[in-house]
Amino acid sequence: MPSTSPVITALNHLLSHELAARDQYFIHSRMLAEWGFAKTAARIAHEMEDETAHADVLIKRILMLGGLPAMQASALNIGFDVPSMLASDLAVEQTVGQLLRETIALCEQTRDYVSRDLLLPLLVETEVDHAHWLEQQQRLITQLGLANYLQSQTA
């Protein structure tokens, strides 16, 4: 019987959001590619790969702790155009960032420093790379105008 602990429960909750981020980036990258926005599509596909790697870290740690990974993604928020995609992707990154901070705090409280140390790079990547890039794109849309931004994102 799989082990359950507060840390495993928190890691599984985080996993569900990482899986949702991966799936959301996946569909968004394919939609963007279909619409001809090759540059944005490529970056979003890269983010999907990063989220897959994050999920892999969590799955391996849950298994190592004797738990069973819950492979059910949380709800997706699929965008219908580029601005709504960027906004929904940023929202999922902000949720993941908050969950990472909460799970890191729980790991410290329970003295699970190995899990904490595995989560810290995920937090840096989520906040410094993923969320920051999405915020940059939103600023560019504001500064350049949507039409100019979209034109800059074609191949």
Mind explaining what this structure looks like?
The protein has 155 residues and is mainly α. It has one domain (6-152): Ferritin, core subunit, four-helix bundle (Ferritin), CATH 1.20.1260.10. It is built from 5 helices and no strands. It has helices at residues 6-35, 38-64, 82-109, 113-144, 146-152. Helix 1 (6-35) runs antiparallel to helix 2 and helix 4 crosses helix 5. The protein is elongated and about 55 Å long. The termini are far apart. The mean pLDDT is 95.
Structural descriptors:
single chain, 155 residues, mainly alpha, Ferritin, 5 helices, elongated, Ferritin-like_diiron, transport, Ferritin-like_SF
CATH superfamily: Ferritin, core subunit, four-helix bundle
Order of helices and strands: HHHHH
Q: If you compute it from the alpha carbons, what radius of gyration comes out, rounded to the nearest whole angstrom?
A: 17 Å
- CATH fold-level label: Ferritin
Number of contiguous helices: 5
Number of domains: 1
Q: Indicate the proportion of strand residues.
A: under 5%
Determine and state the CATH class.
Mainly Alpha
For the sheet with most strands, the description reads: none
CATH architecture descriptor = Up-down Bundle
Q: Structural class, from secondary structure content? A: mainly alpha
Number of strands: 0
Taking all residues together, what is the mean pLDDT? 95
Q: Termini separation (Å)?
A: 52 Å
Low-confidence stretches: none
Catalytic activity: Fe(2+)(in) = Fe(2+)(out)
Binding site for Fe cation 3: 46, 50
Binding site for Fe cation 1: 18, 51, 54, 127
Keywords: Ion transport, Iron, Iron storage, Iron transport, Metal-binding, Oxidoreductase, Transport
